[in-house]
Amino acid sequence: MVSTTAVKRALAALATRTDTARRPYVAVIDEADAARSDLRRAAGFVDAVGLDRLADAVDAAERAGDEGAAERGREALDAYRDFRRAAAGEREERGGGDRDDGPDRDDARDHFRSGPGIPKPDTGQDADR
What proportions of the chain, in percent to the nearest 5, are helix, strand and coil? Predict the structure, then answer.
């Protein structure tokens, strides 16, 4: 059996440990970057960590001269801001404007069009209801 003193000593050593493999800002940027591929994980990241902390991590990476991490962090921050705009229903134009994303709509209608119904089998429902 392990003594209480040994457990306390081990916990104290872990609490004061400074020789971690990654800097804290890198851990935040890595998680932000990885979470972008899964909507639930991305939402969890924003809820748990927040975009302010990600922006702070980008600043810390820049101060440390870690341009690779800073660039990944900026890309992740831009992506999360795009996610937020999309969730709010805003549209941002990117690129040269040559892309055809379909008809521009100024009204609130969606892109679905009404058409003939699909009859349900064995219900006697007419197709032209």
Answer: 55, 0, 45
pLDDT, tens digit, 9 for 90 and up, residues 53-84: 999 999 999 999 999 999 999 999 999 999 88
Distance CA 93, CA 14 (A): 48
Cα distance between residue 85 and residue 40, in whole Å: 17
Give the DSSP H/E element, type plus range, for residue 127: none
| Chain CA centroid to CA 79, Å | 7
Contact 86, 95 (CB under 8 A): no
Residue 76: partners with Cβ closer than 8 Å, 6 or more residues away: 29, 32, 33, 36, 54
pTM > 0.90:
no
Q: Give the residue carrying structure tokens 């100024």.
A: 106
Are 25 and 64 in contact, with CB atoms under 8 Å apart? Answer: yes
Q: How far apart are CA 101 and CA 9, in angstroms?
A: 62
